């Protein structure tokens, strides 16, 4: 048996996605010896191609904003179903506060690879093809055992950042990962050429469509590529028989506006199917370790929150680790503050995610001129302002009150929506073909 090679570092970062590369970059800049382990090799396909305006300041802080401009499509808003055949466009320039009025749509294989290279250029020891197999928690740090192309490693680190994404390394290792009891869905998606794009300043918008079994997205990407997918009730996706690509096209035919845009489309990627992906761990961190991004929780892609939550938590985790390595006595207090912030952002998105397919929210989102400028609070949510904006929180609280009143005015239907969502949350879907679904 080959003896493991021993290595030491200050911080071990598991994962080469946006959360991991953000944390690795910022920690390396602070002078720490960072070993970043990505088990795959870039570029690799990943869903979650729509960024939020709240990403922009962090991209600027990292020094990659110009690179993102080069590889992305400018996104000025989000299209949701309107009262008629035309979409209701939520433009980011109407957001409250000083959130930038734009974001980008990116191919994640290009975006993630760029962030990973940038972490390496910033001084991190960022390695591909290095899989962390096991981690032991020690009084003075962690010991990890890894497998790479040159054999096995034993890595001693003072701190661990778990940014392993849906692999949820620490969540599985500590058995603290839990299925979300309030929300479950399954998704089917692919890339296409030839999909009709929106015109003018709306050409880069994400388009959201609803249908009786869920909702669909269209995300314009560079090189005439459109990311197209449907997030469905698990009960519906379990009906799939045969070819996944054909099932996706048949599902899109249920949405006249989407079907119209797909008339000349040709698929240019495999069709991916994944399910039961809404989960949360019971802890964000512990002694000498912390989670960031999807390693801790994932809700639903409806509001394109994944990359923003990942990069924000990666940056916050880096700040925490930097402070704790210098002042160990502050670890518990800083971890409690980190957990509060991460969970506040998740709760804000979750309220809307849980109710998105309800008829009540559907009507409110279709209103193109709601009272009290309620749409500005929603636009701020869509822009990613879910942490610190007092004005945004007040608008969203008012929106929730209007939602409650509207629900009471049509109580029987409101109750039916609630019961249906709870029933779907109990449905298990096992027909996925992604790496995470095969675990």
Automatic annotation (TrEMBL):
Record-annotated FAD-binding domain positions: 8-345
Superkingdom in the source lineage: Bacteria
Gene3D superfamilies referenced in this protein's UniProt entry, alphabetically: FAD/NAD(P)-binding domain
Molecular function in Gene Ontology: FAD binding
Xref: PANTHER family: FAD-BINDING PROTEIN, SLR1998 PROTEIN
Name this polypeptide is given: Flavin-dependent dehydrogenase
